[in-house]
Amino acid sequence: MPTNFERSLFAVIALVAAGLFASTFSADYDVPSFGGDVSTVFTPRIFLGLVFALSVLLLFMAKAPDTEAQRLSAAGITKLLAVAAVSLAVAFALPHIGFVLATAPGLFLYCYFFGYRRFTTLGLMSVLGPFAVWYLFNDLLGLPLPHTPWFSLI
Questions:
Q1: Confidence band for 56, pLDDT divided at 50, 70 and 90
Q2: Which one is predicted more confidently, 52 or 77?
Q3: Residues 123-136 pLDDT 10s
Q4: What is the structure's pLDDT at 128?
Q5: Among 93, 19, 25, residue whose Cα is nearest residue 51
Q6: Distances (CA, A) of 16 to 49, 80, 111
Q7: How confident is the model at residue 105 (pLDDT cuts 50, 70, 90)?
């Protein structure tokens, strides 16, 4: 039986997915595709739509009454709101400071809020992970991610 925390998490995921889906229609993501008629945000829109639909489905499936032991604790609410705030901050920072600079602190904070406390490993992965994803998409797959304006100055 789902807890209040899980129901709240499904609702927050649905809201974040809806916000990210809506943000893909902005001019910041309207970049020329590499030879096809399909926009570069076509696949992300499909994934975000699926995330939204599945989280709403899980939200409706989780309407069973909960017991006292399943009530959402204050720590759970704080963690939930922190993850939602980080998600929104990363989403809004992407068009302005680029993929790498937006996702590096976001990845660090996600892992921290989910309980990972090995700071050396966490710091390395938070820096190397976004660069690896950037290289994969921009250089190997040819799918441009939002760029950091200052990279051209380096």
A1: confident
A2: 52
A3: 999 999 998 988 88
A4: 93
A5: 19
A6: 11, 12, 18
A7: very high
What average pLDDT does this structure show over 11-16? Answer: 86
Phi, psi values for residue 39, rounded to 5°: -65, 155
CA pseudo-torsion sign 59, 62, 65, 67: negative
The one-letter amino acid code at 96 reads: H
Q: Give the Cβ contact number of residue 75 at 10 Å.
A: 9
Query: How many residues can be counted in the chain?
Result: 154
Q: Which two tokens stand for residue 8?
A: 């709240």
3-state helix, strand and coil shares in percent for the chain, rounded to the nearest 5: 75, 0, 25
What is the pTM assigned to this prediction? 0.55
Spatial neighbors of 123 by CB under 8 A, at least 6 apart, are 108
User: What letter would DSSP give residue 150?
Assistant: G
3-class SS of residue 111: helix
DSSP 8-class letter at 124: H
DSSP 23-76: HTTSGGG----SSSSS-TTHHHHHHHHHHHHHHHHHHHHT-S---GGGSPPHHH
